[in-house]
Amino acid sequence: PPERKRFYQNVSISQGEGGFEINLDHRKLKTPQGKLFAVPSEALAIAVATEWDSQKDTIKFYTMHLTTLCNTALDNPTQRNKTQLIRAAVKFLETDTVCYRVEEPPALAELQKNEWDPVVAWAEKRYNVAIGSSTSILGPNIPASTKETFVSHLASYNMWALQGIEYVITQLKSLILSMGLIDRHITVEKAVLLSRLEEEYQIRRWGNVEWAHDYDLCELRARAAAGTLFVHLCSESSTVKHKLLQD
């Protein structure tokens, strides 16, 4: 959406029947479809309220990733259920970034092996699955048992968290990197670097395009970080200690 002038002075949260609500002065925030904006945890409400409170003279919607994710979870514009969300996430294994390898140039092939093999090995051990990699354009042959293991694992998350997981996966183009990030095995910076490995290799070889690559890198980090935070805030208890609010 285009930027609009900030129309409120104060941002606060309150608890209602549907969850924790965001108040802009005396108005309750609504979703794009006109639903009451109510989130399942107080910590998430605080984070969203901070996004709104951080806006200056104009509201820059493209900087408000948590608000966008909440709107998606509340409105569910694609009308998918939990099973469909999980299947969509697991389908990314078939085209996972870290599973597709090159043979040429040798330097890039070695870089992929050195950087991607450890995270694939971690995922195989963490979830007790076989994943592998391939230089074929068809990609690796992921066993059905591996997919079903990830289906079972993702089923332990609620609908809100699954929206966040899918969001992170679409940013990184990798289920494996996303789970490593959400499981706190790798940092946001590391996950983004691994997802852009070939691009970073080309930049080191041919040079950076002024401002463009840096902007893309920072924006991808922001989206991956927001998605990961969203998953964690949707997976934890609904309230936080009031001391945290005072701090």
Structural description of this entry:
The protein has 247 residues and is α+β, with helices and mostly antiparallel strands. It folds into two domains: 4-75, ATP12-like, CATH 3.30.2180.10; 82-245, ATP12-like fold. 55% of the residues lie in helices and 8% in strands. It has eleven helices and six strands. Strands 2, 3, 4 and 5 form a four-stranded antiparallel sheet that branches. InterPro entries: ATP12_ATP_synth-F1-assembly, ATP12_ATP_synth-F1-assembly_N, ATP12_ortho_dom_sf. Interacts with ATP5F1B; involved in the assembly of the F1 component of the mitochondrial ATP synthase (ATPase). Interacts with FMC1. It comes from Thinocorus orbignyianus. It is a peripheral membrane protein.
Task: Write a short abstract of this structure.
Its main location: mitochondrion. With 247 residues, the protein is of the alpha+beta class. The protein has eleven helices and six strands.
Q: Give the overall average pLDDT.
A: 90
CATH homologous superfamily classification of the largest domain: ATP12 ATPase
Catalogue the unreliable spans.
238-247
**Net shape:** globular
How many structural domains does the protein architecture include?
Answer: 2
How many whole angstroms does the radius of gyration measure? 20 Å
Seen as an oligomer or otherwise, the chain set is single chain
The largest β sheet comes out as: 4 strands, antiparallel
The secondary-structure class comes to alpha+beta
First-last Cα distance: 33 Å
Q: What fold name stands as the CATH topology of the largest domain?
A: ATP12-like fold
